[in-house]
Amino acid sequence: MDSYLTTLQNRPRHPRILDIPCVVCNDNSSGKHYGVFACDGCSGFFKRSIRKTRVYECTDRYKSICSVEKNNRNQCRFCRLKKCFEVGMNPEAVQNERGPRQSTIRKQFDIAMKTLVQKSSKSTNLSEVTQCDKTVAMMDINLKFINF
Hints:
Layout: H1 2-10, E1 32-33, E2 36-37, H2 40-51, H3 77-86, H4 102-122, H5 126-145
Antiparallel strand pairs: 1-2
């Protein structure tokens, strides 16, 4: 047992991903995001900024050189995004947001169908029943359109 512990202690230590700092704010990196080692906070900020095409203004209107460190990275979004670009984050690597899963769509469809059936069975008004039939037909068309 002692020889095993000695071997573990004496082997060369390779840097772990967590030992590499985020190139934007110097927090602990969680791996490579958009081409650079970044923390989850900076990678999420960059992703949201690109997806929503955000345009920020610097909090210090004249300098645009605010400090972007772990403890103050949320104070100036303009300078944080600027630093993301300066360190080489690739906006083309940001993927489009995914839609809901098919199982979620199916559950929503089932709930809507139950509601419509309950409404049409309780209604004595012919126009309400006809409207429910139209809604069911439209939902059916939409499901076929998304290859359900």
